[in-house]
Amino acid sequence: MKKIVLITLLLLIHLQGVGLTSAAEPADYSKIIIMNLNISQGKITEKSVEMAYGHAPNPGHQSGDFKGLVKTSSGSTIREFDIWDARYQLGDVLEYNNDSSIYLAGCLTYTDNADFTLILPYQEEQTNFELYDKKSGALLKSINLAPAISQFQSSYPKEPKGFSFSLPPMDQPRIYLITGIVLSLLLAVMILFMMKKK
Fold first, then answer.
1. How far apart are the first and last CA of the chain?
2. What are phi and psi of 46, to 5 degrees?
3. Nearest Cα residue to 176 out of 8, 10, 18, 7
4. Residues paired with residue 32 on neighbouring β-strands, in sequence order
5. What's the longest Cα–Cα distance across the chain?
6. How far is it, in rounded angstroms, from Cα 66 to Cα 131?
7. What is the DSSP letter of 177?
8. Range list of β-strands (E), the chain
9. Do the beta carbons of residue 120 and residue 64 sit within 8 Å?
10. 79: helix, coil or strand?
11. pLDDT mean for each 10 residues of the chain (198 residues)
């Protein structure tokens, strides 16, 4: 009898561990706004704006000549950050010394026409993006994000809005996990009760 109880207890502990590993990560509903833009002769044009699932890089860690502002429909600024001017491109070039040896050097090139993409994390209250020249303070481009957000929401009508910090609905691994915990506790109580009888 003791062997059966012990084997059952070990099996339940194993199932509980399987439940923990399969139920550890909640569903990820993180979304991004992707803006494909072009700058030519100082004028910025919008090529496309879309919303998708994904994770954006943190735009707050770069420097640049432009400033981006994410705004609400009332005009309040949610976030602001610097943006690199895409007309300046960094690269590598092979250089020659006087003695004909070759070495790799960095270079900075400028072009008056450049495509660039901005990827921003989606926040439920954001509706507009504004791009400014930091030196002059001039507004270079204002982008209405609402159509892209509406298109995404109509494509995924049951999709949670904004950031998904809530737990996902109860799924099979969670049910197994809870069942395993309850059965393990009941078995432990039963073993203790049997030991007290002796």
1. 14
2. -95, 120
3. 18
4. 52, 121
5. 95
6. 7
7. H
8. 31-40, 43-53, 66-72, 77-83, 88-96, 102-110, 113-121, 126-133, 139-144
9. no
10. strand
11. 62 60 65 95 94 85 88 92 91 84 88 93 92 94 95 85 44 66 75 71
- In whole angstroms, give the CA distance from residue 20 to residue 141: 49
Percent of the chain that is helix, strand, coil (3-state, to 5): 30, 40, 30
- Write the DSSP symbol of residue 49: E
Which H or E run includes 5?
helix 2-22
Q: Cβ neighbours of residue 23 under 8 Å, at least 6 residues apart?
A: 171, 173, 174, 176, 177
Residue 178 backbone dihedrals phi, psi, to 5 degrees: -65, -45
Place of tokens 């099996």: 11
Contact 12, 191 (CB under 8 A): no
For the entire predicted model, the pTM comes to: 0.64
Residue 166 has a CB neighbour count (10 Å cut-off) of 9
**Cα-based distances in Å from 123 to 19, 41, 149, 191:** 32, 32, 10, 52
Q: Angle at which helices 172-197 and 2-22 pack, to 10 degrees? A: 150
Q: What is the pLDDT of residue 67?
A: 94
